[in-house]
Every structure is written in structure tokens, then in C-alpha cells.
Design a protein that fits this description.
Elements: E1 5-9, H1 18-21, E2 36-39, H2 40-54, E3 58-62, H3 78-82, E4 87-89, H4 94-106, E5 110-114, H5 125-133, H6 135-138, E6 148-152, H7 168-172, E7 178-180, H8 185-197, E8 202-206, E9 214-217, H9 219-222, E10 234-237, E11 242-246, H10 249-263, E12 268-272, E13 275-277, H11 281-291, E14 294-297, H12 306-317, E15 326-330, H13 340-344, H14 350-370
Parallel strand pairs: 3-4, 3-5, 5-6, 6-8, 7-8, 11-12, 11-14, 14-15
Antiparallel strand pairs: 1-15, 2-9, 7-13, 10-12
Helix pairs in contact: 2-8, 4-5, 10-14, 11-12
Length: 371
């Protein structure tokens, strides 16, 4: 079946006290009126530049990262500034240069490995999982692997099935890895710095369609010491009626859906996950305990997805707070079609999120009316 998958996880409907409904959650950061605009591309580039400047052990390696300045110009200017020993162009051999990177990390360097697309990381998945993720555990803590695997992830536009998969669930299922998925320029800059400084291997999932998007950034974000904590979600928009979780490009869709829902009297709280592994379960559950409803959004496949893990967490920790079945929005359970019209209906759209949130709110309202 083509088309976005939406699924509901049934729960029993219970009422909550005024105290429980009034639980507080972390407020979103407010940008000043004089905030500067920065693209995600510029944010990633500046983070790489600053970390390479601060630590001579950091180096970048991958296809076309040097002379061509990156397939998406993320590494623009870095070869000229740091030279070919620290910005290393490689052949089209993901298994080869990923293995070299992991070996370099064993010896104390901090490689940043770029995949032209994370679909190509499948060529190197043995090194990512068996060589990087498991080494610290299997060496009883004697081997640290401070390496970052980064590049565009998920669907782009018109690139077919072999270039359009979301690998968030794939890598998030593996112990030993940390998995990050930035949305905004603040996310990209702060999380990239955190990833490079982290002692563990980090999978850094960017989105090609977000590279050129501009976001406001505060003076704090532009400071060279700025760094975001791994494992902490951000509440992008506060609300009281329904919680919407999303990551990467889907955060923007969720925020658009929240605007539409406001016109219909529904107040949606939007959570930008930022970190897929570790997952900020406490922020998600605190929000659900306030809104009593949950919609999860992702563009990956529905089975064994991030939304399924979030559903399990909420059902385990906050089941008695739910007033409606959990709604899951995910990509279609098919390889990505090449045709543009089929591609569109294979990934979540704003209207899918709106419909799911309304189903959740109206379902609980009708049940409450007949209770």
C-alpha cells in the first residue's frame, strides 16, 4: 500500500487531576529580536571549523570533502585552512575509509567521517557496529572510539529507493552508538560540537533538504564554547491538548501542523527529539502527562521505528495518563518510489499530522462525552 502509514496504539481512557494536568515542562529557548539568521549548512561548517581549530586531533575524511569542498559544501574552506593531512579526500570506498577512521580513533584521534549519503554507510556498517560501537564494551573500557559518522539521511527529492532511507532506527537499535538528528541551525551547530567532543562513536544524521534553510541563532549559539547536551530533547512549542514528537525535517512539519491546529482550537506541544539514542524519555513522558495525547512523526519505515519505541516508553511509564490511543505517523512501508507524485504520498506531510492530532483530540472528546 502506497501512502503514509498511520497507526494507533490502543489504551484505556482515564481522567487526570488538575495537579497532574498542570505539570510543568521545560520551556523553549527564546531568541532575541536581534538574532542572526544562519543556514544549517553554515552551522555545520562553523562547528567543524571551530572544533578543528580547537583540537588538532580532529580531522575530516570522506569523498570530495577536500578539493570539491564537500558534496553539499559542508566542508567549504576547510582544506585551504587545515591542509590535506586533516581534510582527507578518499576514493569511493566507504568500507575502506571508515575502517581507517575507526583505527585512527583507537589511537586517540577524533575523525569525522562523511558519507555522501547515509545510504552508502551500509557499505561500512561492519566497521560502524562491530569495530566502533562494540569496542569499548568488548575491551572492558580500555578502548575509546571518539569518532563521528555524519552525512545526509532520509528522503531527499527524486533520488529513488536506494538513496532515500532513514537510518535512525537502524543505528539507534545498536548499543554503543549515540545517534543525533538535528533540525535547526542551533541543533546542527550545538550537536555537532557535542558529537566531536564525545568519547563514544556518534552517528550524526543530517537532512539534505534542510542544508539551505535559515534559522535564527542567538549570540549564545554563535559562541565558540556553545554545545548542546546529548540525550536532551527541546520543546519547540508549548501546548496543552496533544503532544507531537518529531526529529530532523519532520520537526518543521510538526510546527506547521501545530499552527493549523491552533486555528481549530487545538493546542499542540511539539517536541524536537534531537537525540535518538539516548532518547529523552523524561521530557516526552512529562509532556504526555500534561496533554494526555501523543502523536509521533517520522519519515522512516513504520515497523520497529522510532515512533514505536516512543509508544512503548509512554505505555510503560504514562499509560494511565492517556485519554486516547497513540497515533503513529511514518513513511509508507515500501521502498521509496522515484515518481514525484508517489514519492510525496510515501513520506509524511503536514496534513497527515493535522489529521492524526485531530483524531486523537476528537476521539478522547467523544469518549469523555459518553462516559
Amino acid at each position: 500500500m502506497l501512502g503514509v502509514i498511520w497507526q494507533r496504539v490502543a489504551c484505556r481512557c482515564v481522567s487526570t487531576s488538575n495537579l497532574e494536568r498542570g505539570m510543568k515542562v521545560v520551556a523553549p529557548r527564546a531568541f532575541s529580536s536581534t538574532a542572526k539568521e544562519m543556514t544549517v549548512r553554515e552551522a555545520l561548517n562553523s562547528a567543524l571549523d571551530e572544533e578543528m581549530s580547537a583540537d588538532p586531533k580532529v580531522f575530516l575524511m570522506g569523498e570530495e570533502v577536500g578539493e570539491y569542498q564537500g558534496a553539499y559544501k559542508i566542508s567549504k574552506g576547510l582544506l585551504e585552512k587545515y591542509g590535506p593531512d586533516r581534510v582527507v579526500d578518499t576514493p569511493i570506498t566507504e568500507a575502506g575509509f571508515t575502517g581507517i577512521g575507526v583505527g585512527a580513533a583507537y589511537y586517540g584521534l577524533r575523525p569525522v567521517i562523511e558519507f555522501m549519503t547515509f545510504n552508502f554507510s551500509m557499505q561500512a556498517i561492519d566497521h560502524i557496529i562491530n569495530s566502533a560501537a562494540k569496542s569499548n564494551y568488548m575491551s572492558a573500557g580500555q578502548i575509546s572510539v571518539p569518532i563521528v559518522f555524519r552525512g545526509p539521511n532520509g528522503a531527499a527529492a527524486g533520488v529513488g529507493a536506494q538513496h532515500s532511507q532513514c537510518y535512525a532506527a537502524w543505528y539507534a537499535s545498536c548499543p554503543g552508538l549515540k545517534v543525533l538528528a538535528p533540525y535547526s541551525s542551533e541543533d546542527a551547530r550545538g550537536l555537532m560540537k557535542a558529537a566531536i567532543r564525545d568519547p563514544d562513536p556518534v552517528v550524526f544524521l543530517e537532512n539534505e533538504l534542510l542544508y539551505g534553510e535559515s534559522f535564527p541563532v542567538s549570540a549564545e549559539t554563535l559562541d565558540s564554547s556553545f554545545c548542546l547536551p546529548i540525550g536532551k530533547a527541546k520543546i519547540e512549542r508549548e501546548g496543552n491538548d496533544v503532544t507531537i514528537t518529531a526529529f530532523s525535517k519532520m520537526v518543521g512539519y510538526a510546527l506547521q501542523a501545530a499552527e493549523i491546529l491552533t486555528k481549530e482550537g487545538i493546542s499542540a506541544e511539539v517536541i524536537n527529539l534531537r537525540s535518538i539514542r539516548p532518547l529523552d524519555r523524561s521530557t516526552i513522558n512529562a509532556s504526555v502527562r500534561k496533554t494526555n495525547r501523543l502523536v509521533t512523526v517520522e519519515e522512516g519505515f513504520p515497523q520497529h521505528g522510532i515512533g514505536a519505541e516512543i509508544c512503548a516508553s509512554v505505555l510503560e511509564d504514562s499509560f494511565e495518563y492517556l485519554d486516547a490511543p497513540v497515533e503513529r505517523i511514518a513513511g509508507a512501508d515500501v521502498p521509496m518510489p522515484y515518481a514525484a507524485n508517489l514519492e510525496r504520498i510515501s513520506v509524511p506531510q503536514v496534513e497527515d499530522i493535522v489529521r492524526a492530532a485531530k483524531r486523537s483530540c476528537y476521539k478522547s472528546s467523544s469518549l469523555a462525552a459518553t462516559a
